[in-house]
Amino acid sequence: MFYSLLKSDYVALFAIIAFGILLGKISVKGVSFGLSAVIFVAMFYGYLTNALGFDDFQIPSIIQKIGLLLFIFTIGMQAGPSFFEAFKSQGSKLIILAIISVVTGGLVTFALGIAFDIDFKIAVGLLTGALTSTPGLAAAIESSQSPLASIGYGIAYPFGVIGVILFVKLAPKIFGVKVEEEEKKYEDEANAGTPELMNKNFIVTNDNVDGKSIGELNIRFMTKANVSRVMEPNNNESKPPTKETILHKGDLVKAVGTDDALKRVELLLGEVTDKKIPRSGYHEIRWFVVSSRNIVGKSLGELDLHNNYLATVTRVRRAGLDLTPRPSTKLRFGDKILISSTKGNVEGLTELFGDSIKMVETPSFLPVALGIIVGVLLGKIEIPLLGGSSFSLGLTGGVLMAALGLSRLGKTGPIIWHLPSNANALLRQFGLLLFLTPVGVGAGSKLVATISEYGFQLFGIGAMITLLPMLIVTILGHFVFKVNFLSLMGALTGGMTSTPGLSAMDNMTESDAPQVAYATVYPFALVAIIIVAQIIGGL
């Protein structure tokens, strides 16, 4: 009975997943393998069944394909918005460094593969293991059409985890950097580059403003701030502003914007005051959630809330960040909008925006299914190259690029390309487990033969692929690009796709510089690793 259970593919699937998750939870001095431990259990299972003579045992390949599709698509959906927004940010140096680390890893892999006569189907696995990139492994297996890539991955992965942690721990001492000084520099740069939204109250004292409407003064255009309340001096109740609201000397005005924007308001209207502007009985300020499909993709200018609802948008919160609302700001599903309006218009605004947290957080599998179909078709497109050859993104690249593009697009007709974060995390984890298990089982049956052929030099090659890119990128980033060292280490862990490495940085500093850098470069590093893995795997 025991042997029959070992040969049962569905029993094996869930047994490997269960024991792999348990193994991944074991932490030694803060280091654990997480879900990636599943591949080690699967490799042992494959080795065991092979040793017992179950040569024909395997988990159906369709399980691996389904897992791959779910895993890659959900990664793209999560990374899409930040992937494109990073082009507009000041993270270009970090992105370049992360891509350099991946390309360097690829070149080291290629050079060592030739020098030591390593089969590139194994070498590409060493690369993805050294960079701790499971999506890269997926691309490697697809391009090489061989389980040998997963053997290389399993050999290089442990040092890929430990090596990054040791490097980021020792790097400040090696390069003579004081973490406290880098924290102070980063804080100063961050405060200068990302002005905080605030609000102030003003008394209208400018004679040129007296008797003119907010529309005539064009306050939003002139100052880049938003007026949220207006109160007459002899009135104890404020009123929501509209374009027709007439300002008089002595009126109190509440405005929201950056420090520079509020200084321009002061020049336009009058002096700052500590006097309070209370909310009136007919005045309402509240958050609305964008859950209506009809307004996704529309700009605030198109909605014209001033004229249609006597309402003013003072903030847009997206992915935890407060954005200054502009007429050109396009709404995305799940955005939160802070609006100042009359109570009578709250019902209309609720109907307009939808304002349903439940709808935003309720997952639908439709965008996943349709998005994967788009990705599969995209991956089959042949792109002609010089010399008569052609190139295609393949299954992994096609699905990833489709997910990145669709998540950025947000909406196509009636389809909302959105997955709540909890649903995305669950599907991503499920897909990863379905992918790793059959891959590991297939690799385990060939593990002994591979090590017998190449010996233990594969472990040393994997370590070199981990260390050399980190050393080169740190030298370039610190001495050439002059990047803040904490941001550099965050970019380094992002380029190596190493969450444990990022955790090690968290224990060294209270600054959020490593996390911000990691989040900025990770999507680019992910795409770069997949492309490099496809190239080397196809050699």
TrEMBL record:
Chief localisation class: membrane
Top-level taxon of origin: Bacteria
Membrane-spanning parts: 10-28, 34-54, 66-84, 96-115, 147-168, 365-385, 391-409, 430-448, 454-476, 483-504, 516-536
Biological process terms in GO annotation: potassium ion transport
Cross-referenced SUPFAM superfamilies: TrkA C-terminal domain-like
Domain RCK C-terminal, first and last residues per copy: 184-271, 272-355
Keyword Transmembrane helix part of the UniProt annotation: yes
Entry-linked Pfam families: Asp-Al_Ex (PF06826), TrkA_C (PF02080)
Family the UniProt entry places it in: Belongs to the AAE transporter (TC 2.A.81) family.
Protein name: Transporter
